[in-house]
């Protein structure tokens, strides 16, 4: 169980995401979608032949509730998002992973320090509960934030 | 008794009657409306002064004296004015109380003196209450602000707690339903 920050170009981001979900498809996965709607993310994964049966979506893009099994949280409410992630970690049984797509989007709605605090809280809790965390961020965005948070992750994959 | 003596007695009697009629006391009243029975230092009070039975047939000048006395009868402010009146008159007298007047029972006095030196007095009591000083205002203001802040904070805190409870319940339901649907497949 580890935490990883994946910093990659926008072009490679989708491939990296699909690759990560595929690698973790054997376990339950909490997917925090900050860049795309849950619908669009799920469609993209299905097109790539990845099953979404074991995914729990937290959609931070749309507030309109279309499905009962999807949680909608505004990216402004970092506390709520943090509570939701921690509750999912607690409630979902067995091995699980947490995917955050993409961390830098939080900077549009919150200041760097708040986001850094959020990341620290999540990675710490995940580590205590043996949850794999994989956070993505486009290479071009939020360099200062990335400098502040990379220490909270066990690995940083910059490609 | 001679006719001249009788005439003298008659004229004397008439003069005495006329004089006694002239010397009759005024009806003089000072009335403070109920809203001025209890006032604050620095307030203005308005008194109704009623004057009747002046005994004169024409217009005469009278001197009106006003003063406010403390419980020990010390006058704290006074004023005087001359007004022209006929058989009766009504005035409204405005009295500005000093801002530093100590709380207590006070009396508003009025005295009327006609040109014939005939006098009449009237009075009415009123109370002066303690006005909140600046420190009291600051304490009250601070207390109100603190109460508002506590209510506002509690409201936000309770609201946040309710949101969290709702969120946790939703997540429990989502997880339970997903696990159940996977088991049924």
Comma- or semicolon-separated keywords:
heterodimer, A: 159 residues, alpha/beta, seven-stranded parallel β-sheet, 23% strand, B: 185 residues, alpha+beta, Immunoglobulin-like, 2 domains, five-stranded mixed β-sheet, three-stranded antiparallel β-sheet, 2 helices, 38% helix, rod-shaped
Describe the structure.
The complex is a heterodimer of chains A (about 160) and B (about 180). Chain A has about 160 residues and is an alpha/beta fold. Chain A is built from six helices and seven strands; from the N terminus they run βαβαββαβααβαβ. In chain A, α5 packs parallel to α6. The radius of gyration of chain A is 14 Å and the shape is globular. Chain A starts with a strand and ends with a strand. The model of chain A has no long low-confidence stretch (mean pLDDT about 90). Chain B is built from two helices and eight strands. A five-stranded mixed sheet of chain B has the order 2-8-7-4-5, with no helix packed on it. Chain B has two domains: about 25-130, Immunoglobulin-like, CATH 2.60.40.3880; about 130-185. With about 180 residues, chain B is an alpha+beta fold. Chain B has helices spanning about 5-20, 135-185, and strands at about 25-30, 40, 45-50, 60-70, 75-85, 90-95, 105-115, 120-130. Residues about 20-25 of chain B have low confidence and may be disordered. The chains are: A alpha/beta (about 160), B alpha+beta (about 180).
